[in-house]
Design goal:
The chain has 3 helices and 4 strands, in the order E-H-E-H-E-H-E. The protein has 109 residues and is an alpha/beta fold.
Length: 109
């Protein structure tokens, strides 16, 4: 990253795999800085692992999100592993100093 380039901000997609009506995206855009859209598949948490149907849906949704981002000049960064560790790696690699996420209202089943 060039010294005069603004630091990017990270837009972390979790369950809200959409661009429309996305408060975190609106907040990231409002910074006027480059946006790094990220999805992290974190299977390290407690609870059941996603089944085949859930993984199929996730794959289709992530592909559609990536297409929508590419149409706007971006691309979705995909990572797999512990969310906190992957975010720290991305911050170290990009120099990002802000992470935007949408609030999650549902409880884990």
């Amino acid at each position: 990253m060039a010294a005069d380039s603004p630091r990017p901000v990270i837009l972390w997609f979790r369950r809200d795999l959409r661009l429309a009506d996305n408060p975190a995206l609106a907040a990231a855009v409002a910074t006027g800085r480059p946006i790094l859209p990220v999805y992290i598949l974190d299977e390290s948490g407690e609870g059941r692992r996603p089944g085949a149907a859930s993984l199929w849906w996730l794959d289709k949704s992530l592909r559609a999100l990536d297409v929508a981002l590419r149409q706007r000049g971006g691309r979705l960064v995909l990572r797999r592993g512990d969310s906190e560790a992957e975010l720290r790696r991305l911050i170290d690699q990009t120099g990002a100093d802000q992470v935007f996420i949408n609030r999650r209202f549902e409880t884990q089943a």
